[in-house]
Amino acid sequence: MASSDPGQRDGTIGIKEVALAAGVSPGTVSNVLNRPERVAAATRARVMEVIGELGFVRNGSASSLRAGQGRLVGLMVHDLANPFFTAMAAGVEDLMSERGYAVILCSSATSVEREDRNLRMLAEQGVRGVLVTPVEDGRDRFRLLHERGIGTVMLDHAATRPQQCSVTVDDVAGGHMAVTHLLERGARDIAYVSGPLSIRQCADRRTGALQAIEQAGPPDAALREVEVPDLTPRSGQRAAERLLAELPDAIFCANDLLAMGVLRELLQQGVRVPERVLLMGYDDIEFTTASAVQLTSVRQPTYQLGRIAAELLLDECDDTGGHAHQQILFQPELVVRESTTPA
Predict the structure, then answer these.
(1) What is the Cα 11 distance to its own chain's centre?
(2) Would 70-169+302-331 and 171-300+334-340 be classified into the same CATH topology?
(3) The domain 171-300+334-340: what is its CATH number?
(4) Nearest 5°: CA angle at 328, between 325 and 334?
(5) Helix (H) or strand (E) holding 107
(6) In sequence order, what DSSP letters do the residues of 35-82 get, joined into one string?
(7) CATH superfamily of 70-169+302-331
(8) Inter-residue contact 132 to 121 (CB < 8 Å)
(9) pLDDT at 125
(10) 15-66: CATH class
């Protein structure tokens, strides 16, 4: 007769044997394996010690069948080459690893079509939930996941519907503090170098920049806008080429990669930063302090964004009726360095 214990196959140690040897219930052993955060540290350590002594190996396929889903989650961001998303993914992966989950990582490359393909792929893989930084607002792209009972949490993006969790940063406030800083440094003609405004982060940072000029700028202050196709150093260089004919007092870039491309082109053309042009980035990625001129930037808590979003997703996936959807909004921080501080 086959064992009814999904962790046991004929001739092997099962959950019941582990529970008996550890002096706990089978449910406690199951929690140690599946939801370790719910078990006291001392009990968890005792169970894990017994598991090692007895040589217990969980039948992952059977437990997945019992739960109806495996221990996989999806994570989709805009650009895996961007250190901002790499740091955010590290927060997700660390938390998921601690809870016994594996992460399928993919990129939309800011393409709606690629985003849709990836969402279908994740659904077909039977993921338990998905963390996603959407490409655009206003599309019901997550209906397929919702219909299949797959939880979704918006990462670095506001919730797209009321009954949904999200973790993001106030980018309007970030754009406001960036341009306020440039105005305080004496800038009047400020260029905003941005990716497509269909990207929520680019649009919000522009909104904040315009608000700063309206609220804090003198009558002659103005914002020039330079839109580029993507948020890469190469696009930053091309934006700087367009600005060389009539240099502004300051350049605010929608992310640090654009700013580093702008800086490279300006220095190659003999334009001194910050003496001739003030330069501001956004995200405060690791490389901002390694550039030829250390970059002033707006810092986001990237690792914490990923980790907290992962916690919300697992809480939603494990919901037994008590989950409360949360929309968490972090505040950014201005980090002043050489690129806006003339000697």
Answers:
(1) 45
(2) yes
(3) 3.40.50.2300
(4) 175
(5) strand 102-107
(6) -GGGS-HHHHHHHHHHHHHHT----HHHHHHHHTS-SEEEEEES-TTS
(7) Response regulator (3.40.50.2300)
(8) no
(9) 87
(10) mainly alpha
| pLDDT < 50: residue spans in the chain | 1-11, 60-68
Q: Which of 267, 271, 228 is nearest to 246 (CA)?
A: 271
CA distance 80 to 108: 9
Say how many Å lie between the first and final Cα of the chain, rounded: 82
Distance of CA 152 to the CA centre of its chain: 13
Cross-strand partners of 165: 153
Question: What confidence score (pLDDT) does residue 258 get?
Answer: 98
Domain assignments of the chain as residue spans, ordered by start? 15-66, 70-169+302-331, 171-300+334-340
Q: State the Cα–Cα distance between residues 166 and 131, nearest whole angstrom.
A: 9
Q: Is 214 exposed, middle or buried (0-12, 13-18, 19+ CB in 10 A)?
A: exposed
SS3 for 223?
Answer: strand
SS3 104: strand
Three-state DSSP class for residue 11: coil
Tokens 């490279």 sit at which residue? 264
Spatial CA neighbour of 201 closest among 178, 172, 237, 160:
172
pLDDT at position 71, please? 87
pTM assigned to the model: 0.77
CA atoms of 269 and 266, how far apart (whole Å) = 5
